[in-house]
Every structure is written in C-alpha cells, then in structure tokens.
Amino acid sequence: MTESKRRRVFSCAEEDRISNLQEHLLDSILERVPIEDAARTSILSRKWRHTWRNMRALVFDKHFSNKFAKNGAFRRNIPPDSFQEVDQWMYFLSRNGVTEIILTNSNQLYKLPCYMFCCRELRKLKLKHCLFKPPLEFKAFLNLEDLELTNIDFGDNLCGSQISLPQLKTLSLSSVRKLRGSYITIFGIHDFVGGDRKDLSKELSHLPEIKDVHIDSIFRKCLFAENIPKWLPHPVISLKRLRLQFFQVGDLDQLHGALCLLRNSPNVEQLYLKLEPRVDEGPALNHLKSSNCLDCTLNQLQTVEITDLQGSRPEMLFIELLLAHSPSLHKFTIKPSRVSNVKNRLFITIDVMRFSRASPKAKLLFVNS
Prior knowledge:
Blueprint: H1 3-15, H2 23-30, H3 35-40, H4 62-70, H5 73-77, H6 84-94, E1 100-104, E2 110-111, E3 124-131, E4 146-153, E5 170-174, E6 178-179, E7 182-183, H7 189-193, H8 200-204, E8 212-215, E9 241-247, H9 252-263, E10 270-275, H10 282-289, E11 303-309, H11 313-324, E12 331-336, H12 342-354, E13 363-366
Parallel strand pairs: 1-3, 2-3, 3-4, 4-5, 5-8, 8-9, 9-10, 10-11, 11-12, 12-13
Antiparallel strand pairs: 6-7
C-alpha cells in the first residue's frame, strides 16, 4: 500500500468517530432516530450491519404508521384484521430481555400472545385496547413496577387465579369506552390480583411497593365491597399518590371505599379527585354528617386537587372533612364544573372559605376551568 493510500485509510478511520463509540452510546443515538433510519444503518459497514438489531427501545409511533400507510405498505402486507406483524415483534422482544412495553392500540381488540408473559425482566407495562388472557401456568410479573391498563378485556379465565406483583409501584386502571357498538367486558380488580371477591383496598394491602394508584370510572362499582371494613389487616404504607377519576361522593359505596383508602394509607401525600354528580345522595349525605365518618388524621396529606366540583351538599361536606383532618396540608385546589354558573361558583367559594382548617399553612386555590 502506498503512503498516500495509508494516509487516506487512517484519515477515514479518524473521521468515523461514531463507529468507535461504546455500544450503549450507539444504542442511545439509534433510539433517537426513526426506526426505519436506524435499520438503514446496516448498509454503512460490516460493523453496523447488526447494530440496530440490538436496540433496547423500538418506537412505532404515528410518524412510523403514517409514513408506511401513505406508501400503502400496510395495505399490501398486513390484513386489516391481523396482528401477525405485532405478534412477531412481541416475540422478538420477549427473547431479548425487554424491560418496558407500551402498546397503544386503536384497532380491534388485540390478544396479547402468551410469550409476552415470559418477559421476566419487564418493569413497565402500558396497554390499551387489548385482551389480557395469560396462560394458566402464569403466576407473576416479579419485576413489574409500573402497570397501566386502559380498555382491557380480562376475559373469563382470570377468575380464581392469583397474579403476584411484588414490586408494583404505580397502578393505573382507566375507563372502558364504547367501541364499534359494543362494550369491552372488564372484570373487577379482584379477578386480576386475587381469586376471592375482595375489595380493592384489601388487595392494595398485598402490594408492598405500591406508591401511585389511579382508578377510573369503569371500576367504581366493582372496586369496593358492600360491607367494606374501616380498618384493614395491613395498612397500605407505601401509597403516596391517589387519583380517583369520575368519583361520585354521593354514592355510598364509593364514599366508603375512598374513606377506607384514606384511612388505611397513612402516608398519602397527594390526592386528586375528578368528580361526577350523583342523583341519589341521601345515604352518603347522612354518613358524611356522622361524627365518626373519618375517625383518623391524614397526617401526611399535603396536596389536594378536586375538579368538576358542582357544589352538591355531599361534595362540600367531603371538602370540609378533608380540611379538618389534614394538619400538613399545603395546597387545596378546587376547579368548579364548567356547567356551574357564576352564582354557584361564588357560593362554593364562600362556603369553602368558612370551613375550619387543621393546617394553618393550607392555601385554597380556586381555578375557573
């Protein structure tokens, strides 16, 4: 090799600094470009040929879907009622130690393949519009920390089964929606985390690492047992943040369930409530007026946010209850319902300002939506 050629080879090697980066840095670079561009790097050189296959994050987002749909790739390769391509990717992920799966499906109900339940290292699982039917031998997601389920059909094979989630820290259960004229069937949380018909509060006491709980409207009737006890055998010590979507203060069962969660979660710091009106409020109103409605102090509660407040008597009594039992409260935010008029909002403001507060530092914020 002549001297000039050696100089050119050496110069090219110096300029190709990206190829000489460490593997985790190459992965980080590839994860930040569209997946089709990452795959194209395989033609750069022998070293790059299989690099993209070791990517730790695969993102098939709207950009990816729109681009391929525009080119007609989906119409040519994927039947409209088939998830064969998705199954293949799920199989690939299950064989490569995937730690995070986010599957947001807007098509027909997608049945999760059995090998997805073999992802032993999975830490985050976010599913939307899927059929969740694990194999009979499946018992646990031992490393799962974050679970978010939206529009999930649990089928009928979870009854009597036990699924262990010992590391779970965040649990989000979102509402069912009407899809193509029929409702997706969702069984209660008792069928998901336990075999007996138990209320959610009891089940949470068996999740020692749970820190965040988000419960949406579809579960509001099946979450809480009719004869829910005041105190549980084991308090939910780890719970820090509680969010109840479309919560009906005027529904006695929901009220009992919410109070039980607060009473048995001594370290809750943040409470978020999105309210929904309830027509029959008599029993709940009487319970809120009783002296032992909430016979404990919420010592760690610091932030409360209530949205879609309409100013009903049960709602106002519930606010008064929270203010009177929260000595560490810093901020209490109230967002009245959009349908409430100016006069009603004024009455809400006046009433809340009159309520006694256990915390002298509590700030009341009224936000017009």
